[in-house]
Predict the 3D structure of the following.
Amino acid sequence: MHHLAVHFVDINLATGLQVVLLGFIGGVLSGFIGSGGAFFMTPGMMNLGVEGVISVASNITHKFGKAMVGSRKHGEAGNVDKKLAVFVLGTAIIGIQLAVVIASKLFREGTGHGAAKGAGANLYISIVFATILLGVALSMLSDLIKTSREPEGGAGPSTRIADFLARFNLPPVIHFKVADTKVSLWVILAVGTATGYLAGTIGVGGFIGVPAMIYVFGVPTAVAAGTELYLAMFMGAYGALSYAYQGFVDIRLTLLLYLGSLVGIYLGVYGVKVVNEKVIRLVTSLIILLCVLSRIIAIPIYLRQLGYLNIDPGWDRYFNLVSKFFLFASGISGCLVILFYVVRAYRQRREMHRTLQFAGGSPVKRGEASPA
Amino acid sequence: MSIVMISSAAHDVGKELALSLEKKTGWPSLSRTELVEEAREHGIKLGRLETSIIKSPVVPERLAKEKNLYLAFITAILCEKGKGGNLIYQGRAGHLLLPGVTHRLRVGLMTPGEMRVENAMRDLRLPREKAQVYLDQLDEDFNKWVRYVHGVERLDPAQYDLFVNLHNVSLPNISATLCSMAELPDFQPTPVSLRLMDNLDLTARAKVLLATHELTRDLDLGIRAVDGVVTVTYMPRQEGAAEAILEVLQGLKGCKEARCTMAETNILWVQESFSADSENFQEIVQLSRRWGAAVELLRVAPPAQRVQGLPEESHGIERIPVQGTAGGTYTGGVEDDSFESEGEDNGLSHTMEALVSMGRSAGGETIYGAKDEIIDKIRGESNCSLVVLGDLFLEKGREARKRMIRELSLAIRERLKAPIITADEMSSRFLFGKKQAIKLLGFAALVICVYILVFSFQKPILNFLGGEIHEQWKWLASITVALFVPFVAYCYSAVTGLLLKLIGID
């Protein structure tokens, strides 16, 4: 049996700070976009030299604790449909187990040595990551373009899928009271398994789960987010237990991610309140597209390590560098845009409290408060 | 003089009942069909809204705005028609329109299923089975509509004054019963209910005007009108909104004064008596500063005060003349017209003025009643992110008051799922004080210790998580991770939450 400890990356101050930064950016994006932020943190850690499977395992463990804290708050607000969560969870566990088995098999059966060990798993994770998120980003952009063309400048998401599925009531159909919707069990099975599989493979759950619940099940947005977080807690727990059992969880990475993410998430959520919905969707889709590009650029490295591509190993460094550049460019620029709005709104909030009023036909300004 | 609101379902006898009542009384009548037609003529896309709600519960933000516009539009028409005297309204969820107006008689009908099926067969030329399926589907869609648009269950008995089962009673007899009931003192207008109707009318017209005017139609606004004073809150990102809103509102009939407050959200503060010098006020203001919120005041007065305006026919109850009472409880800036003087409104107007001077006012008003009235009021608050229950049930003892406020809070939370806290909880939940400082220091110390330990003993820990020790203790390693991680997350999130609260970002 391999001594897995050798696959844990050495963490010096610089690496540690970079992981904290990844956590912070991931947290800001996560709070802003509403996903777990794994799409940024997982490849980010891989770019720092962390094995793909360890990045996923450490991130899913990080997500577990975060979801536990978050779902408690959503639960208090009545945004959690536990019945729906139970149904999705049952199938999601199958998906996670499938993902864990595939990822660890690819990792252990890798034929390479040194850096090449785990290249199969890295390639597999990168391909799934790029394919799924490219689809998400493109559909978001297309939705945005379509709604922008509408004369009234509509801002709502498309309801085509929910409308389409509402026509088929493939029995058994289950009624979810909190979400106030009826969904066929078969649809739940498909979506749950896919969500679990993606959560287990690339650590991305909410990115698929929340839109699926909104678009496919027809669940209100707040309930979708709350239920997904509740689900994420169990899926994260299951993923963390499974990966920890396999010996892939690097608790140091998880703790470093927390240092940044739990601060960032507050700022991201604050950003949502102060940024226009179209800007939110545009920023989100562009960030994801850059992340996908970053992962695609890294794919030749894994292909070479697996012997499918014959290029000079010296090129790995450049591929890695460019990949890293795009990843950090997407995260940092997205994060800066969000922080710009956050800071602007924060200052505005402190400096411009006012009540404008008119009485007797002429406007008068009242209640202009000095900066706090 | 009362308004009879008949809530009817598809293919029942609501329309016939309204006609019968109209013939018997000579009162004007209005149906939902007419309102919908008028709404469509004004460009409200009701069809899209209905399809969206019925076919898929995912209602886009734009359609949610359409819903508010539709509700405002029909409220404005109902107020206009109902102002002149009596009115009979018949239509889907009619009993839920004009919330809070006490001189409306809310009637529900239970039409026998067989009668509805036969009506549907006759009207649509459908065979029996298909008519039954059609009606079942229609009822389900109808329930969804009521739940989304009004936030309550269609058949909730608490929403009706009278629910009639047509199985054993004939239509003319029901009509006669309704005539008699509408004459009861309980359903006669009082100064308070007339004033509330005026407020609903002005609010609705302001909403329609702002939602359809080219300068303001894209804004996210919170709109409230009380006694001729229209208060509008707008989001900080909507620069220049205040000027545009004021410009548009200047053309609104009945708007004596308009106030625009920039706010990310609203905090609804419910009390019996307000004071700008109280500790609760200071805490509310502190919280509103942190959140960039505007504060809306809701004064709760005992229901007994509401019936002071009953007509002379009512036994043993003093009548207050209706004429010349256009003013109301809210007195910010319109004291001449006010129904209650400043001293009588238990500090509402004074506190409102204090909020206006701070740029934090989202309006305020008085409601007469208790739990149900407060719930009705909160249900209509789409822009409210927190409800604070302050000093209520003041005539009770301290312990009883605490218990009753807690029960009220639970009832509201259960029925509305609204974020609600009591004033006592405010400082511990949202503000930063000594307790929070101690908590912050405690959790911070714990987190620092954990991090120091983990990074000081990296090698044995990694060995336990993925090395030789792990090979022997796989289950123990995974259980340790599953217990340790949420513990760290909880402690560290407490630290970050408190730190951000300290600097005012929460």
